[in-house]
Amino acid sequence: MDANVQAEFELGMIGLGTMGRNLLLNMADHGYKVIGYDKNPKQVELLDTEPGEVPGEKDLARFIAKIKTPRAIVLLVPAGKIVDAVIDELSPLLDEGDLIIDGGNSKWTDTEERVKKLEEKGLHFFGMGISGGEEGARKGPSMMPGGNKAAYEHVKNILESIAAKAKGEPCVTYIGPGASGHYVKMVHNGIEYAIMQLLAEAYELMKEGAGMSNKEIHEVLKSWNEGRLQSFLMEITADIFNYYDPESGEYLLDKILDVAKSKGTGKWTSQFAMDINLPIPSIDVAVSTRDLSKYKSLREKLESRSRVASDKKGLKAELDNFQEELEKAVYFSFVSVYAQGMFLLKTASEAYDWNLNLAEISKIWRSGCIIRSAFLEDMYQAFSAQPPIEHLFGDDEIGAKLQEDLPATRKVISTAMQFGFSLPVFASALNYYQSMHDGRMPTNLIQAQRDYFGAHTYELKGEEGTYHSKWTEAFAPSIRIS
Fold it and tell me: Model's pTM, two decimal places?
């Protein structure tokens, strides 16, 4: 380490792409002395051109020497092997008690391994989910940091200063130990997948079922965004329907290929939910539908052989008040998606001993992040209640609103499906709600089937222990196994 270099900066940023650069400039705007580093000298030079005079450094050892101890260094580099490569290069140059924060969309299990690896070297490692995109990073994101709580105190003031604000409160909080911050961000992204798919399904009902123009759809979404469905995703979706391409004389949306892509965080949400046996059907099916959209040529071939698409035009005439009933179905499904995501967080918290505070998580999502919405205030209040609710559906006010909208939701979904619409998120949101309110499911038959073909045993009502039957006999007595 260069002894002639003065340690004068409070935080360093490694990775000066748009997100890293914007986050660094945000910190500087709030009066913090910060410095950036990137292996690509062009990115460092680009930082030097930004207003605010935030310095960049091209030499890693000099960069580290310029940060006050205990050092706080944020990584905003692509997830995966690059994170490990940066850590391997960085950690030998750090001192015990220094903190590395991974602000990318890393898989939480990778973060868990990095926490353990760096603990052995006396270093702290944080996985911090950041939501809000480029604009959020510059003007105020929602942030979800998880790791050593004492280490969090070292960067708490900086993070609270640069975070988005909701009702004057910063949209950042200490999430919990280990990789809990990246897990919460993963679930945030899963919810995001499902809401985006939900809005796409509502769009198809308006466009194909009701024959509405893009301008008319824009007006409907704009009006919804002024009510209880107000949200960032609703706002930008309304804007998309208003974007007219003057060069082609068409709406840009109508020119975009109907093949959706993803970066994998939605898939992780489904995979890790299944690992703890927790159903999130609306997120699962949103991920699957993006994958299904890739089979464009096959879809077109099969469409030419069926009448499904031609049946859609008559939908509007079958509904008494199309826009009002559709709004209720969207709100109902919207809430169901959030409920699934939050129940996953509750269950994961218990499984991994994270002690997640669902009220605080709801609170920091109210502004800055992609899934911010007016409903998050209701969700915050619901999870703040004492005694705590077990599930979002258990809140009296939210439960009453869902009961009120249930008839319209059933009507929209059942009618639309009769006319050939595929509504994966709408239908899964309704099915989840109805199953969660069903005290008796038909799954006793599944246990009987499993015992019949595989002797997997079953339990009896009001009885202790497990049982097995010889189902091929004329009478299959229940034989207690344990």
Answer: 0.94
